[in-house]
């Protein structure tokens, strides 16, 4: 199995990640325009497809990716107000419309999700000395738009997206994920060449 995250997962992607997620980026570079933010996200994604995802699938491996285009539709499309169609058009252009066979959308209540993300990033600062809090500084209205767009995506594409939004223990969530993966990918005609996405929302 090949695992990666977005943004990141390649040398180019890791550099892009530093620009997009570091809360000091805009102090150093100036305000990042929403369209520039989206373009950088897709530059990372296109590089991941070229360098990691498609070669792994050609070798017959399973690919597990933390985030993919659904996140851009939620964050840049809804959160930044660029609109879903603009994001999906960029996906078609930059990614040849390659989509996962399965997306696991972990969508806990919004307040709990944000609190968890901020604790995680505080821990990341202590452990690694790097700050990835740029998105967490956004207000409640931004995250409400992101959250609702994820629900829209799940309702629009229920065959690909499995929504996990019930209050359960970690063990219960893990069991549900295992069952879904077995059902969706275990029966896939090319299960050994599958692309799965995990989104833990609604925070980066």
Describe this structure in words.
The chain has 204 residues and is α/β, with parallel strands linked by helices. The protein has a single domain (2-200), classed as Rossmann fold, CATH 3.40.50. The chain is built from eight helices and five strands. It has helices at 11-21, 25-29, 34-58, 69-79, 84-95, 110-128, 140-156, 170-184, and strands at 2-5, 63-66, 102-106, 161-164, 195-200. Strands 1-2-5-3-4 form a five-stranded parallel sheet, sandwiched between helices. The longest helix is centred in the first third of the chain and has 25 residues, at 34-58. It starts with a strand and ends with a strand. The mean pLDDT is 87.
**Beta-strand percent range:** 5-15%
**From the alpha-carbon coordinates, what is the Rg to the nearest angstrom?**
17 Å
CATH architecture: 3-Layer(aba) Sandwich
Strand/helix succession: EHHHEHHEHHEHE
Low-confidence stretches: none
Strand order of the largest sheet: 1-2-5-3-4
Keywords:
204 residues; alpha/beta; Rossmann fold; 5-stranded parallel beta sheet; globular
How is the secondary structure organized here?
Layout: E1 2-5, H1 11-21, H2 25-29, H3 34-58, E2 63-66, H4 69-79, H5 84-95, E3 102-106, H6 110-128, H7 140-156, E4 161-164, H8 170-184, E5 195-200
Parallel strand pairs: 1-2, 2-5, 3-4, 3-5
Helix pairs in contact: 1-3, 3-5, 4-5, 4-7
């Amino acid at each position: 199995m090949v695992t990666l995250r977005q943004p990141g997962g390649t040398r180019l992607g890791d550099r892009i990640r530093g620009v997009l997620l570091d809360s000091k980026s805009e102090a150093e570079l100036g305000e990042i325009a929403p369209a520039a933010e989206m373009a950088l996200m897709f530059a990372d994604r296109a590089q991941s497809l070229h360098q990691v995802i498609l070669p792994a699938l050609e070798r017959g491996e399973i690919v597990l990716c933390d985030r993919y285009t659904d996140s851009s539709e939620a964050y840049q499309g809804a959160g930044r107000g660029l609109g879903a169609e603009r994001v999906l058009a960029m996906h078609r252009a930059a990614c040849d419309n390659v989509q996962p066979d399965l997306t696991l959308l972990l969508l806990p209540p919004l307040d709990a999700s944000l609190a968890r993300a901020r604790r995680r990033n505080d821990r990341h600062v202590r452990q690694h000395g790097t700050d990835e809090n740029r998105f967490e500084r956004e207000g409640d209205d931004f995250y409400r738009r992101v959250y609702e767009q994820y629900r829209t995506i799940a309702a629009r594409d229920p065959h690909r997206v499995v929504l996990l939004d019930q209050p359960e223990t970690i063990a219960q969530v893990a069991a549900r994920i295992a069952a879904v993966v077995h059902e969706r990918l275990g029966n896939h005609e090319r299960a050994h060449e599958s692309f799965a996405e995990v989104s833990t929302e609604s925070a980066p």
